[in-house]
Specification:
27% of the residues lie in helices and 22% in strands. The chain has helices spanning 12-23, 40-47, 66-69, and strands at residues 3-7, 27-32, 56-60, 78-81. Strands 3-2-1-4 form a four-stranded parallel sheet, covered by helices on one side. 27% of the residues are buried.
Length: 90
Amino acid sequence: MAHVLVTGGAGFIGSHLVDSLLVDGHVVTVFDNFDSFYPRALKEQNIAPHRNHRQWTLVEGDVRDRRALETLPAGIDVIVHLAAKAGVRP
């Protein structure tokens, strides 16, 4: 069992990866900034099944913010970096 950090883990793809990681028994920390390009309710819906899972944690923050990154827990074994600028065209 690994401790996996998934940036962008509240998004569509990230949340599905988190589903799989949790089923496989991993500890998962999601780091997401809930960019206003998408309605927050969509991302909240994506992570709703994870909220009560004892091996899941959410840290809200932006990967460009060093202070936010410093709030992440120690002991992360793997980072899956899926965070990206939402709505690249605008």
